[in-house]
Design goal:
mainly beta; three-stranded antiparallel sheet; 47% strand
């Protein structure tokens, strides 16, 4: 579902923490997957883990949140631990060729 050019999304998902939106944009051929998140705002979760699964099983090399480097990720588990989110957030995972 994250093949190059795909953009799967979830809109107005009802969660315990409040409604949220999540959209992925795949540029896997050029080495990146991006998630755009509108986080829940009713209750702030203690932790959010975002999982990126590259279609060719490549490990994450680098992560940026809103254009800034982020080092809290686990390449083996394909997880990015997100900071406290207060509004729309863009998370990009980059992969080696």
């Amino acid at each position: 579902w994250l093949a190059d050019g795909e953009a799967p999304s979830i809109e107005r998902a009802a969660t315990y923490f409040g409604p949220m939106n999540l959209r992925f944009e795949s540029k896997s051929k050029s080495g990146s997957l991006t998630a755009i998140i509108d986080p829940p705002t009713r209750r702030a979760p203690k932790q959010i883990l975002l999982r990126f699964r590259h279609p060719s099983s490549k490990p994450i090399q680098r992560v940026e949140i809103n254009g800034r480097p982020w080092d809290k990720f686990d390449a083996t588990r394909e997880w990015v631990e997100l900071p406290k989110l207060e509004g729309r957030t863009t998370v990009t995972a980059s992969y080696a060729d």
